[in-house]
């Protein structure tokens, strides 16, 4: 009996210890499980946090990239705006300059148009004066053969052509008496307009001059014939010598071919040219 009791008392601490250790173990194990779960949760939270942090960083980077791109666009737009503004300013300056230039051009065109109209009016007046002069000359000379005397207007200039046959003998420069009467009629019309200036031109054909005397060639003959006519107009009919010019043209300004006798006869002539009043014309130009 005592032995059983002794064994019982001896085994009791072991049993009690075993029971206590098992409880603690369970409790510890439960605690470990709890801590493990908490750790897993924390690890998961940490991972989520890290993932969110990485996602935020990625989003931040993406946003920063977008911001940088927008800033570049803003800089480009600013530059483009400045350039466009400068172009508009330049265009404005050009437009103002062009507008002023156009205005001046229009003003010049207006003044030039008035100037041209004035010139045209003066030229029309001159043409009418020339036509009146031609009619007066033809009326004064009468119905003379056109082969001997021809009066015409060419480009605003009046020409009076008198044939060599009427004025001179062959190779001579003394004016015939019949020709003096014709020159007198011409002088009567010219004298009625004292402002008129005119030139007397001597012309020959191209046949070599072979008459003995003081004349050497057709140049000499044409000049002598011109001065002979000028002296008659001055001394016998009172025309102002300051308004007369004498010129010899020789054979070098023919009106037709010298290959025929008829052509050579037409080229042998004395021409009176009513000179245009250039001083009046230049005065018109000075009014520009």
Furnish the topology, listing elements before pairings.
Elements: H1 2-141, E1 149-154, E2 157-163, H2 164-167, H3 177-191, E3 197-203, H4 218-236, E4 244-250, H5 261-267, E5 269-275, H6 278-286
Parallel strand pairs: 3-4
Antiparallel strand pairs: 1-2, 2-5, 3-5
Helix pairs in contact: 1-3, 3-4
Provide an overview of this structure:
The chain has 288 residues and is an alpha+beta fold. The chain has a domain at 144-286: 60s Ribosomal Protein L30, Chain: A (2-Layer Sandwich), CATH 3.30.1330. 67% of the residues lie in helices and 12% in strands. It is built from six helices and five strands; from the N terminus they run αββααβαβαβα. Strands 1-2-5-3-4 form a five-stranded mixed beta sheet. Helix 1 packs across helix 3 and helix 3 packs across helix 4 (218-236). The longest helix is centred in the first third of the chain and has 140 residues, at 2-141. The protein starts with a helix and ends with a helix. The mean pLDDT is 76.
Question: How large a portion of the residues is in β-strands, by DSSP E?
Answer: 5-15%
- The number of E-state strands comes to 5
CATH architecture of one domain: 2-Layer Sandwich
Tell me the CATH superfamily of one domain: OmpA-like domain
What is the typical, i.e. mean, pLDDT?
76
Shape: rod-shaped
Task: Report the end-to-end length measured between terminal Cα atoms.
Answer: 164 Å
Which CATH class of one domain is shown? Alpha Beta
Order the strands across the largest sheet as they lie in space: 1-2-5-3-4
Q: CATH topology of one domain, anyone?
A: 60s Ribosomal Protein L30, Chain: A
The low-confidence runs, each spanning 5 or more residues with pLDDT under 50, are: none
Rg for CA atoms: 63 Å
The tally of helices reads 6
């Amino acid at each position: 009996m005592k032995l059983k009791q002794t064994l019982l008392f001896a085994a009791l601490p072991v049993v009690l210890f075993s029971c206590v250790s098992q409880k603690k173990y369970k409790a510890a194990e439960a605690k470990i499980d709890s801590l493990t779960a908490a750790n897993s949760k924390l690890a998961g939270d940490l991972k989520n946090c890290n993932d969110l942090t990485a996602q935020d960083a990625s989003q931040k980077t993406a946003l920063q990239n977008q911001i940088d791109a927008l800033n570049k666009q803003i800089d480009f737009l600013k530059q483009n705006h400045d350039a466009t503004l400068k172009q508009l300013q330049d265009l404005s300056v050009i437009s103002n300059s062009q507008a002023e230039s156009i205005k001046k051009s229009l003003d010049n065109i207006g003044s030039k148009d008035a100037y041209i109209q004035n010139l045209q009016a003066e030229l029309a007046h001159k043409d009418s004066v020339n036509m009146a002069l031609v009619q007066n000359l033809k009326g004064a000379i009468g119905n003379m053969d056109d082969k001997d005397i021809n009066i015409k207007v060419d480009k605003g200039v009046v020409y009076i052509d008198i044939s060599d046959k009427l004025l001179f003998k062959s190779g001579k420069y003394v004016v015939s008496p019949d020709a003096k009467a014709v020159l007198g009629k011409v002088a009567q019309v010219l004298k009625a307009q004292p402002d008129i200036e005119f030139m007397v031109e001597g012309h020959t054909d191209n046949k070599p001059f072979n008459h003995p005397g003081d004349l050497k060639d057709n140049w000499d003959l044409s000049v002598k014939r011109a001065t002979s006519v000028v002296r008659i107009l001055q001394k016998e009919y009172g025309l102002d010598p300051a308004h007369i010019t004498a010129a010899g043209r020789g054979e070098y300004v023919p009106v037709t071919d010298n290959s025929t006798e008829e052509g050579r006869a037409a080229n042998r002539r004395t021409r009176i040219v009513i000179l245009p009043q250039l001083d009046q014309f230049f005065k018109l130009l000075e009014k520009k």
